[in-house]
Every structure is written in structure tokens, then in C-alpha cells.
Amino acid sequence: MTRPDIREPADIDAPWLTAVLAAGGVDAEVRSFTARQVGTGQIGDSVRFTLDYARRGEGAPDSLVGKFPAAGAESRATGVALGNYLREVRFYQHLAPQALVHTPRCWFTDVDEATSHFVLMMEDLAPAEQGDQLRGVTLDQARLVTVQAGRLHASHWGDDGLDDLPWVSGSKAAQAGPVNDDAVSMLWAGFKDRYADRLKPEWTEVGDWVSTRYTWLGQRHDGPRCLTHNDFRPDNMMFGTPEGGHPVTVLDWQSFAYGAGPTDLAYFLAGALPGEVRRAHEGELLALYLDTLQANGVTGYGMADLRRHYGQGAYLLFLTAFFAAMVVTRTARGDDMFMQMLGSAADHMIEHDAVRD
Fold it and tell me: What is the rounded distance in angstroms from the CA atom of residue 357 to the CA atom of residue 354?
């Protein structure tokens, strides 16, 4: 059967879905389907395809979820400019099988390097449910995610082979991106103006500090590097429910990098747990993360280093919040989410004395 091509959701038909299943090793024939948008992605749009079969071969799924470039022009342009679409496809093609973290099964993915037009067809993880940045997570869910973080980071801990891959952010082979200190400062100034009535004074002070140190903040990590997610938050995860589903699955690999693992952990815990819960259980969660690293082969990295690197890490959550707010298509939920991310990141940075040179 012909290999599937790259299509927009509106152009997908039953023969194309049949070809996707064949690419994933299933011999079946799709007769018809229904399509419904799912998720709350800012840079990409996701669609669930519920399948009706003329011939249902062994292993044929009830449904698939496809990810596509964002329909919003501003968000799509951002995804192209930042290399998000190309990066996610390359992750599933080359890194996912060895990453140790639980990710969706990829049935088919491809990208046009010239245009960044892409398609990613994955397993439908329902009845698991997408996390919600605004709702946050339970402590038990935070423990599950902490283990997944440790597994992910251990998988390529100190692996300088990632430096040779141009589609890995932060690698030596990666081209310089469009973001620089001046651009970040301008975006922060615009964010302060737009959201002035929602910003606490201490958050503004943190932003004034962060926005003038973009390059330095990305370079100050003094420990081993590893494969990192770089947008490690509940909206990019699926959690099991009483009805079923894997306990936690990590999605949205558009921003992964060769970077500092504890930054992912700070990004998640600062934004996903209420401050009082995080403070009460931070020591336990850091110990769980370190135990997971060690159980998966990491040596020579201790709690003192982890605490220092974790304490520095929430800057990325703060940067992502105001940067993304200014470059994606604006929505009411997006406004609330970015403000929640920014405020919780600022609080974490202040608590950990991270706002200093």
C-alpha cells in the first residue's frame, strides 16, 4: 500500500487512514470515520478519528488521534519559526524508543522540512484524560510524573551524541534560533503592558530580572546535560482515570532539548502543585527523582547538586509563560494559564533565592 502523505485534517479520507494503519503494521480497511477536535494545544491542533471498518484486522484500534499544525495563523507561524513541528516528528522517529518515558504509540508521522508541514498519528489514550494546568495535579500524580522525569533524563544522561543532532534544541549542531536577549526584553515589555492589572509587584520584579538575562540563564547550568522535555506541564500529559488508561503519558515533544534535567522537574512542580503542597513535599519528590535517576544508571550526581539545579530551574516556566502569551493566538484560557504559570514560577524562584547573578 502507498505510504501516507502529509495532510490537513479536512483532507483526510478513509483510504488515507487505511494507509496509516498499514504503516503501523495493521492490515485493515477503514470504511468511514468521524473526526472531532480534542485537547487544548497552543501550537498544534489535535483531532480524534473514530474508525468504522469494512475489514478489521488484528490489532486495529477503535480510534486514532492526529496532531497537525495549528489552525491559528499566529500560532502556526510560531511553530514553524521555532522549529517545533520538525522537532516533534524527529523525536518520534529517532528518540522515543530509547527515551524510557511513557509516550503514545506513533502509528505514522512525517514532516516537510522545507515548509514544516507535518502530521503525527498516535494512539488514542482514552479513557486517560488530559491534565489541566489551571486545575493542577494531585500529589499522587506528581509522584508519577516525577518518576517519568527521572526515567526520561536518565535515558540520555550526559549523552553528547545529542550534540550532533541539528533538530535537538541546545545541541552544538542546532542553528541559532530567532530568539535573543533583545526579543525577549521586547516581549516582556509587551506582556507587562497587556497584563498590567493582573501582575503582582514581585512578579514584575522577577520578570524584569529574567527578561534581561535570557542567554545567561540558558547557559548557567553547571551539571550534566540530558534529554529534556522543556514544556513539562499537565496540559502535555495524559493521566489514567478509574475507567482505565496508563497512569501517565507524556505528550507534546515540540520543545525537547539537550539541557538540564532538574529544570523540567522545577517547571512541573512549580506550576502543577499548589505552593503549600509543593513546599510540604518538595524534599520527598526530589528524593524520588534522584532515586529514579540512580535506578536507571545515573551515577555521580547527588542531592546537593540536584537541589541547586532544581532551585534555578523555574526560570524556564516564567520565560515560557510570557513568551508564549505574546506569540500564540490569544484565548481567554490561554491568558489564565500563562498568568498561572508565570506567578507560580515567580513564587518558586523567590523561595529558592534564584533571582540573583
Answer: 8
Query: 270, 263 in Cβ contact below 8 A?
Result: no
* 251 contacts: CB under 8 Å, gap ≥ 6: 103, 104, 236, 237, 238
**210 and 300, same domain (yes or no):** yes
* pLDDT value at residue 179: 82
Q: Is residue 4 part of a domain?
A: no
* Total domains present in the chain: 2
Backbone torsions φ then ψ of 214, nearest 5 degrees: -55, -55
Domain CATH for 344? 3.90.1200
Domain membership flag for residue 306: yes
Q: Which of 55-64, 267-276, 327-336 has the lowest mean pLDDT?
A: 327-336
Distances from the Cα of 287 to the Cα of 81, 293, 309, angstroms: 38, 10, 14
State how far the Cα of 193 lies from the Cα of 190, in Å rounded to an integer.
Answer: 5
170 and 228 assigned to the same domain? yes
**Is residue 173 predicted with pLDDT exceeding 60?**
yes
- Position 1 scores a pLDDT of 57
Instruction: Supply 126's cell numbers.
Output: 482514552
Is-contact 308 168, C-beta < 8 A?
Answer: no
Instruction: List pLDDT tens digits, range 29-76.
Output: 999 999 999 876 667 789 999 999 999 999 999 999 999 998 877 778
Distances (CA, A) of 200 to 81, 203, 204, 206, 350: 31, 5, 6, 10, 13
Q: What is the amino acid identity at position 53?
A: Y
85 with 198, same domain?
Answer: no
For 225-262, what is each residue's pLDDT tens digit? 999 999 999 999 999 999 999 999 999 999 999 999 99
